């Protein structure tokens, strides 16, 4: 693994008209999350640009969402999913259950901190404001 070479490969896959989606997918899915974070840092130092922003610009739809999610640390990816689940009218209850019921205590603490960092809001307050009844109580317990 060489973060600098991977940053070059991603830059080359995105330069010019269009992008080499297959190369992007192959490279990103063959690296661990820790390695992907290192690639983001190498990309920033080599090109002075944010890799995630460039990926968002080059890609679209569900493929963009997948790739961008993979590039973020797990807690930030979970924070984004929860933010989307409670945004607007209605709540994606399955998403909230899937994330909050399947994470360890440490992962929940990391998620709460990431949510606060990314959105400058309190996760528990946002969930309490968007849910009700026994479901709300269960989610609050899971957040504790």
CATH architecture of the largest domain: Orthogonal Bundle
Strand content: under 5%
* Helix-and-strand structural type: mainly alpha
Q: What is the assigned CATH homologous superfamily of the largest domain?
A: Annexin
Q: Looking at CATH, which topology of the largest domain would you report? A: Annexin V, domain 1
Overall pLDDT metric: 88
Shape: elongated
Number of domains: 2
The level of helicity is over 70%
Radius of gyration, in Å, reads 17 Å
Instruction: Name the CATH class of the largest domain.
Output: Mainly Alpha
- So how many helices? 10
Are there runs of 5+ residues with pLDDT below 50, and where? none
Q: Could you describe the largest sheet, including whether it forms a barrel? A: none
Number of strands: 0
Order of helices and strands: HHHHHHHHHH
Distance between the termini: 38 Å
Family: Belongs to the annexin family.
Keywords: Annexin, Calcium, Calcium/phospholipid-binding, Cytoplasm, Repeat
GO cellular component, one term: vesicle membrane
GO molecular function, one term: calcium-dependent phospholipid binding
